[in-house]
């Protein structure tokens, strides 16, 4: 797996976030880390709730953490799980990703087996509804 220094740092942070995931119902732990346009790394994990609809995914928690810290533009997002099959973002996360990432930004899924798959934002959600559609 050929990875850049930034990607390596993101993987480490996503794996650390994964270890903090709160997933007592699904036991599907997810960690995410994003590189902001300003060169900072933010992370998040999934947080489940007994009222399942209130569960928040790692990707959205990661992005929200960055926004809380004043960051709103991102370069790369890494999603870490310990599933054999690499896990892309869910539909809700894809829509949130489109809000903050450029169409050609990299979204990467990795796992404990060192498997890696990448997509562009545009590949994950073609013809996305964006703020431009509100004008």
Automatic annotation (TrEMBL):
Cofactor(s) essential for the protein: Zn(2+)
Signal peptide feature range: none
Keywords: Hydrolase, Metal-binding, Zinc
InterPro entries: CMP_dCMP_dom, Cyt/Deoxycyt_deaminase, Cyt_deam_tetra, Cytidine_deaminase-like
Top-rank lineage group of the source organism: Bacteria
Domain CMP/dCMP-type deaminase: 5-132
Role according to the record: This enzyme scavenges exogenous and endogenous cytidine and 2'-deoxycytidine for UMP synthesis.
Sequence similarity: Belongs to the cytidine and deoxycytidylate deaminase family.
Name the UniProt record assigns to this protein: Cytidine deaminase
Gene assigned in the entry: cdd
């Amino acid at each position: 797996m050929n990875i850049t220094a930034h990607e390596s740092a993101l993987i480490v942070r996503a794996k650390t976030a994964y270890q903090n995931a709160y997933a007592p119902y699904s036991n599907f732990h997810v960690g995410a880390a994003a590189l902001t346009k300003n060169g900072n790394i933010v992370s998040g994990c999934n947080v489940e709730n007994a009222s399942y609809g209130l569960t928040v995914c790692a990707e959205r928690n990661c992005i929200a953490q960055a926004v809380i810290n004043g960051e709103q533009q991102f370069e790369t997002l890494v999603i870490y799980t310990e599933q054999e099959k690499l896990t892309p973002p869910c539909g809700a996360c894809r829509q949130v990703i489109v809000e903050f990432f450029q169409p050609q930004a990299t979204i990467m899924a990795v796992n404990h087996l060192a498997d890696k798959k990448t997509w562009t934002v545009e590949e994950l959600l073609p013809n996305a509804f964006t703020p431009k559609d509100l004008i």
